[in-house]
Amino acid sequence: MLRRTFLGQSARILAASATAPQVIACTSTEEAFPDNTSFSGNVLIIGAGIAGLYAAHLLMQRGVDVTVLEASTHIGGRIRPLTGFADFAIELGAEEIHGQRTEWYKLIASAGGILQSADGGTDYVVWNGQARSDDTLSGDSGFRAAQTFVEQATNYSGATDQTVGQYFRASGLSAQAAPFVNAQIGNEYGTSMDRLSLRGITEEDRAWTAGDRNFILTNRSYLDSIRTAWSDVVGRVTTGAVVREVDYRNSQVTVTDQQGRKYTADRVIITVPLTILKAGDIQFTPALPSDKISALSNIGMGAGMKLILHFNRPFWPEGLGSLYGNGYVPEFWVTSAGRSQNQFVLTAFVMGEKAEFLSQQGSGATEIVLKELDALYAGRASQFVTKSYIMDWTKEPFIRGAYSFPVVGGGLVMRQALANPVQNKLFFAGEATHTAGHSGTAHGAMETGQRAAREVLVN
C-alpha cells in the first residue's frame, strides 16, 4: 500500500544530493535533554493529545511540577480507539506508524505492542469504471503516467508555487487520472490536491527522516500503549477544562477556563489543534506576535473523516491493500487485515472537499459509500454490511479537522514561526508546529512535545 511516507520515495532518491531545509528537530530524548537541564517553576500544558502528554511526561521525569488541562472528557486527542465494534480495537484517528526511526515507534514497541508491516497487499484502482490491480494496469500508458506524476510531485523545483491540482491540470494527464492522483497525494496529506501546496510537500518530503516502512498495531490500541507508557501523566490531567484566555502580561501566566477557573504557571505549553488557534477560541493577552498570526493563516487544516464498515463476509479481492476510488471516497483499506481472522472491516478514508460533502450528509454518508462499493462489486457491500461507524473529526468541537497540510504561500518557515516561544513564557507544540517534515503524523506530534519540553528546560 502506498502511504504518505512512500509518496516521495522515488523523488527522494532522485533528490538525494539536494540540500534539505535547515530546521530544528529532536532525534532522540537523550540528545534533546542535556544532563544538567532542570526547571524549578511550574508548567501548565493546554491539551492532552500526544504532544501535551509527552511533554508532561518528560518534564515530570525531571521533577517539574506539571498540570495538564484538556477540553474534552478524554485524553489522546486524535488518538482514539473504537472498541466493541469488532474483536479488535479500531483506530479512529492515527492508524499507521510511519517510519521505524522515531520515538513513537519505540514507545509502542516497548509498551508491549505487536507491530506488523502495513506495506503489503495488492492495490486496486478504479480505472475505466472497474477496480483493477495496479499490476494489471501496468500496461496502461495513462496509468503509468499518473504513477510517474505521483512519484515526481515531491520533487518540484519550479520558480512559482502552485497547488498540486494546478500542476496536474497543466501536465496534460487525462481527467481519468485525477481521482488517483488526488487519493495518492491530496487525500494522504489531509486535504485535496486543489488545496495542497506543491512546493510545500516537496519541502516536507525532503526533510523526512522517520524511515520508509509503515506499521500497524495488532494487539491493542495506541491509547492503551500511551496509558501504559505515560501512566505518571494520566492522573495529572484535568478534563473538561476548556481554556478561553491566556494572559501573559505578568511574570506568571494566568490561564482562565470556560468555567472561570484560573490557573497560574511560570510557563505554558499550548498544544491545541491548529483549527482552535485559527478560530480564536483562546484569547491571548497581549495578542500573539504578528508572525505567529501570519503563520496561522498560512498553514492549512480541514475536514477529515473515517467511515468504518463491518461485513459478515469479505467481497473484495483476497490480499487487498488499498482500493483507490473515483467517487467520494479516495481510498478504502481492509482494517481487519492482520488483526482478525473472522471479522471483516473496511475503512473509507476521506479528506478535503469530499469529507466536507459527506459530513453534511450525516448518517446518510454511509449509504453513499456503500453505493460506491456496490457499483464495483455487484451490490455485495449493501448485501453483506452488518453495521457502520462514522468518525467525523470536523464535528469534534475541540479538534475540528484532520491534520495540518502546507498551502501555497506557506511552508516550513510558517511552521517554525508557529513553533517559536513567546517571551520565554508561552511554548507551542502539536503536529502543525513540526518544522522537519513530520507534520500530520503521530510521531511528529510527539517530537514537538519533546522539543517544547526541552525549550522550557533550556531557555
TrEMBL record:
Q: Write the signal peptide boundaries.
A: none
Any idea where the Amine oxidase domain is? 50-457
Q: Which InterPro entries match?
A: Amino_oxidase (IPR002937), FAD/NAD-bd_sf (IPR036188), Flavin_monoamine_oxidase (IPR050281)
Q: Name one GO molecular function term.
A: tryptophan 2-monooxygenase activity
Q: What keyword terms does UniProt attach to this protein?
A: Auxin biosynthesis
State which pathway it belongs to.
Plant hormone metabolism; auxin biosynthesis
| Catalytic reaction equation(s) | L-tryptophan + O2 = indole-3-acetamide + CO2 + H2O
Q: Does the keyword Mitochondrion apply?
A: no
| The protein's name in its UniProt record | Tryptophan 2-monooxygenase
Q: Which organism is it from?
A: Spirosoma montaniterrae
